[in-house]
């Protein structure tokens, strides 16, 4: 059975403001989860609740992680950086602050989703230069922080693993690699929340071809970590009249915010081919690094689901997925 270490995003343990980061860390530890992606806003909320600076909060959280035997995988998500219209100097100053916090947390990675604003630059040289300067800033002090670059399915310039891999190769820095998420692959080439049957045209063929190319073309050493989540089929299908729709928001972003359960949670409507994607990304390429659960769901916002319950669901989901990946790989 695949033996990758399991992590979870702190926001995936609860989006309820009353569930603070320290409770989430203890819940993850008690469930046997080995690592945590710390969401910056969760750390900020903890610092405000403790009435301490975010720097002091980061040090306290790291101490708690040591005490509970939970490793900090990443600080996330450093959004809308490359090609943004604000001055690069200001973006790098903000990045410097995030990297400082990441080092206090002893995080291995700073997670950077691909830019998704409509007013960003489309110029490839600008985008690559911005990301090179970020990677260089992250390696300018010790310990070096690695940049885990994630293609969002609604990304403006980068929305597929192939886009992201091309960017990684052009940035050409040892501390710049991929964060891959099953939700983005599944909703970019297979699922469609506006379709009555939940599928894109030729969905299975497009996914199969994408995964074959991945196994053939993606260097394993450039996969920094893999995130897992499922997606709920929309009923009724997405439209601008849908109660979750917001003007100007990509339909995949709306999907992501409201309807991303843990993998194989069919009881929450999960229907993506997560097993196929995960098997290609993990088993077929021999990836032995971190696996992280990153889910978002509307039921996680009102405090009815505790971090302890969410952590157990994450572990159960991973165990079920491990079995499914192994059984399919033997067929």
From TrEMBL:
<dbReference type="InterPro" id="IPR036237">
    <property type="entry name" value="Xyl_isomerase-like_sf"/>
</dbReference>
<dbReference type="GO" id="GO:0016853">
    <property type="term" value="F:isomerase activity"/>
</dbReference>
<feature type="domain" description="Xylose isomerase-like TIM barrel">
    <location>
        <begin position="25"/>
        <end position="320"/>
    </location>
</feature>
<protein>
    <submittedName>
        <fullName>Xylose isomerase-like, TIM barrel domain</fullName>
    </submittedName>
</protein>
<dbReference type="InterPro" id="IPR050312">
    <property type="entry name" value="IolE/XylAMocC-like"/>
</dbReference>
<dbReference type="Pfam" id="PF01261">
    <property type="entry name" value="AP_endonuc_2"/>
</dbReference>
<dbReference type="InterPro" id="IPR013022">
    <property type="entry name" value="Xyl_isomerase-like_TIM-brl"/>
</dbReference>
<keyword id="KW-0413">Isomerase</keyword>
